[in-house]
Amino acid sequence: MRDEFVATTTGLLDEDPRTALVLADISASLFTDAAARHPERVHNVGIREQLMVGVAGGLALTGLRPIVHSYATFTVDRVYEQLKLDLDHQDAGAVVVSVGASYDGSQYGYTHFSPGDVALLDTLTGWTVHVPGHPGEVPPLLRAAAARDDRTYVRLSTQRNDVAHPGEGLQVIHRGSAAAPVVVAVGPALHEVLPAVDGIDVTVAYTHTPRPFDVAGLRALLGEPAVVVLVEPYLAGTSSRVIADALAHVPHRLLALGVGRIDLHRYGTPGDHTRWHGLDAAGLRRSLTGFLATAPVNATVCRPEDGAPAPGRGSTAPRRRRAT
């Protein structure tokens, strides 16, 4: 996904004089040629993420369309105040593109984890959030974002689905019976959802754009009572409020699955963390079958720690850094 981001952004810099790029060392070497061709629109501010967002806000106020890029933990968690003030408060638009996702950089330790990034952006005003599940979805999403003037977050990951689904809104990947529960998979979560639901009567819907959420599309898929299982590759329950608001006047059951809130104090691989948080196919199937067998109507259940072991006590990650 990062390769597609670099290629697409380089093309935008060449094609559109409104496009600008602001970096904080991460991926800077991948834009060396673009920076040489467009030194007035490609800026590397060094390891100063707050400044990176501040510069982007200033560029936006001059009429440029800035793209900001780093690890998710540095483009959202570390710079939340600048996102709030320099972009939101000034009503300045930008495209914030992250890598690392929830735990793709697990080998670097907890400094590179960001499962709460989308939840943090939900506290701000009117952000569009794209969570592509395949590299092939990145170019159209990024080009569409660059053409707008809003505030957009594009969350790239090393996790991926087998095929791209570049369409808009909720896309039905597998259709169950008329009264079947609807399993909503966000971005790369679809890769584990499909084997998890094998042989179970459910409808599987996919989205790479959880904000704004396709509420109308979800309502059109639901039976009575409405049963929804939400699988997100970031903090469990992040979209529960959106779903609950959409179904406030409809009898419904909701299970929200995602990354748990427990710091496991472990490095491991991204696959290890997927399993520890119950987001692999086996863990998802356990949660899904248990919920469908026991949950009452009008229940909202978050079970992000299903299948997760007790936290291990290894050495903690260093505070700084740095992966490139």
* Total separate domains: 2
Per DSSP, what share of the residues sits in E-state strands of 2 or more residues? 15-25%
Q: Main sheet?
A: 6 strands, parallel
Q: Uncertain segments of ≥5 residues (pLDDT<50)? A: 305-322
Shape: globular
How helix-rich are the residues, as a percent range? 25-40%
CATH class of the largest domain: Alpha Beta
Determine the CATH topology of the largest domain.
Rossmann fold
At CATH's second level, what is the architecture of the largest domain? 3-Layer(aba) Sandwich
Average predicted confidence as pLDDT: 92
**Structural class designation:** alpha/beta
- Total count of helical runs of at least 4 residues: 12
What is the CATH H-level superfamily of the largest domain? Thiamin diphosphate (ThDP)-binding fold, Pyr/PP domains
The whole-angstrom Rg is 20 Å
Order of helices and strands: HEHEHEHHEHEHEEEHEHEHEHHE
Instruction: Please state how the strands of the largest beta sheet are arranged side by side.
Output: 2-1-3-4-6-5
Determine the N-to-C terminus distance. Answer: 15 Å
* Subunit organisation of the chains: single chain
Number of distinct beta strands: 12
